[in-house]
Amino acid sequence: MPLLSLVCVISGAALFLSRFLFIRRPKQLPLPPGPPGAPLVGNLFQAPKRNPWEKYAEWSKKYGPLMTLKNGNAITIVVTSYDIVFDLLAKNNHVFSSRPQPIVIERIGLGMTTSFLPDGDKWRHHRSLRRAVLSPAMAKKYRGVQSLESLQLLNELRSSADFSQCLRRSAVSLFLVIAYGKRLPVETPEVLEMEDTVAHIGAVSEACFRGTEILAEFFPILKLLPGNGAWKKKADRISSWYTELYLKRFREALKLPSWNWAKQYDTTKNAKGMAEIELAYCIGSVYEAALTPYELVRLVFLCAVFHPEETAKMQRQIDEVVGRNRLPTWEDADKLPLVSAFYREALRWRPWTPLATPRATTEEITYKGYRIPKDATVIINQWALDRDPAIFGDPEAFRPQRWLDNPDLPHVRYGYGHRGCPGQHVGKDYMFINMARLFWAYNVGYAYEGGKKVDLDFEAMMDPRNEISFFNQVPDFRASLTIRDAQSERLVEQEWLTAEKDEQKLLAEVEVLDFTK
């Protein structure tokens, strides 16, 4: 670097630091307390590499349930109290309904991935489109398709030793049929590529917190420096794959005879003025979330293996209500509270999203003598909330009965406010019908090899499957699913053989309600 340029750079830096350090600033409320960090970079190099929710919980015990972390110019507020969640966050939706904008996510999604859009008109248009097809009333209209997928799942498990593959196909097929009008009777490479891509997005996102990407993320001016090319190339490859897939699926769905999301989006007045690619992304970005139910049933299976006594209680209730001469149906739901309680306890005991989904503030807000600045990232440490012994007695114990003893126990498993999970009603239906039928038909327990039990490493099963921490995916594990009796097997086979398998006929029964009245 020429000497004159070097002198200019040093002089400019000195001037900036002198103004930053010595200019008197107006008095303002402090940020919530947090661990002390290094000058300029803050807590950036203290960030835990694995299971950050555990470290945040440890820090919160020292600094309080409302805690600040500073990463360069970025401020993150960590919440570790249900009181604060409901008293501050839920009551101030207008402040906490935006999302942080990581540069890698923005580049991959072309600024059109609904779940990551910032608060504003664009996000509200996307939300209105999703609400029209994911409302409680619409969720009920998908039950014919839900039932068909559950029947295929039951039948597949009679001959397949890969329960994860069967669950993945079932969950994705449900999404594909209602979104694009086409089932997935057999898993294709596309599904595996989607699963790998979702995991890769998490990995690429976390790569932005290393090397040059640290500077690019937390010191925006340094985006102009060389050294940012590697993650951009990866992000662009993913973006191209998504765009090609979403447009292909969207265009094919428009040609099908019966109703589907693509046809609904293409004709609704709420989508007026939206380009084809944006409509395709509005639907397609749900594809990633479609893998969630598959992961949640795997979690339920893991809990069943580790807690056979609780599993037996649930099965006894299913047998008492349903009997052994028919499969569970939707009408049985209110009479099978242990099915729901088992699922709720599984998500509390081993949260799927231990740090929930980050929010971003749209304006500064004060709370109990502290200020939370505009554009701060807000994280709820759900893992710590669900282990609060003052709320959940003996929190390490797996005890579904706690949800029946106290139905008002707090939770944020579906988020809260305007950014709450839009697919929760379809998801709840998926979990009920599949759990009720799976545990009616099968016993789930440890796998055996050569007559010997295949033990599972408990600690390893509590850690995420991947190095990333955005989702706490259960690691791969072996389990035994055995049909409970000959009558169960006959009914499973018979119900599948006689089921209506033509998705166009099933979708013809779905009539979209008028939400404009």
Architecture per CATH nomenclature, i.e. the level-2 architecture: Orthogonal Bundle
- Examine the coordinates and then state which fold CATH places here, giving the name of the CATH topology: Cytochrome p450
Q: Helix/strand/pairing class, anyone?
A: alpha+beta
SS field, number of helical segments: 22
How are strands sequenced across the largest beta sheet? 1-2-6-3
List strands and helices in order, with pairings.
Layout: H1 3-22, H2 52-63, E1 66-71, E2 74-79, H3 82-89, H4 103-109, H5 121-134, H6 136-141, H7 143-156, H8 163-180, H9 189-207, H10 211-218, H11 229-254, H12 261-267, H13 276-289, H14 292-306, H15 308-322, H16 337-349, E3 359-360, E4 365-367, E5 370-372, E6 377-380, H17 382-385, H18 401-405, H19 424-441, E7 442-446, E8 448-449, E9 452-453, H20 458-462, E10 479-483, H21 486-498, H22 503-508
Helix pairs in contact: 4-11, 7-8, 7-19, 7-21, 8-14, 9-11, 11-12, 11-13, 12-13, 14-16, 14-19
Quickly describe the structure.
The chain has a single domain (30-508), classed as Cytochrome p450, CATH 1.10.630.10. It has 22 helices and ten strands.
Description of the structure:
With 517 residues, the chain is an alpha+beta fold. It has one domain (30-508): Cytochrome p450 (Orthogonal Bundle), CATH 1.10.630.10. It has 22 helices and 10 strands. The protein has helices spanning 3-22, 52-63, 82-89, 103-109, 121-134, 136-141, 143-156, 163-180, 189-207, 211-218, 229-254, 261-267, 276-289, 292-306, 308-322, 337-349, 382-385, 401-405, 424-441, 458-462, 486-498, 503-508; strands at residues 66-71, 74-79, 359-360, 365-367, 370-372, 377-380, 442-446, 448-449, 452-453, 479-483. The strands form 4 sheets. It has a 4-stranded mixed beta sheet with strand order 1-2-6-3. A two-stranded antiparallel sheet has the order 4-5. A two-stranded antiparallel ribbon has the order 7-10. Helix 7 (143-156) runs antiparallel to helix 8 (163-180) and helix 7 crosses helix 21. 36% of the residues are buried. This is Cytochrome P450. Its cofactor is heme. One of its GO terms (molecular function) is oxidoreductase activity, acting on paired donors, with incorporation or reduction of molecular oxygen. Heme binds at residue 421.
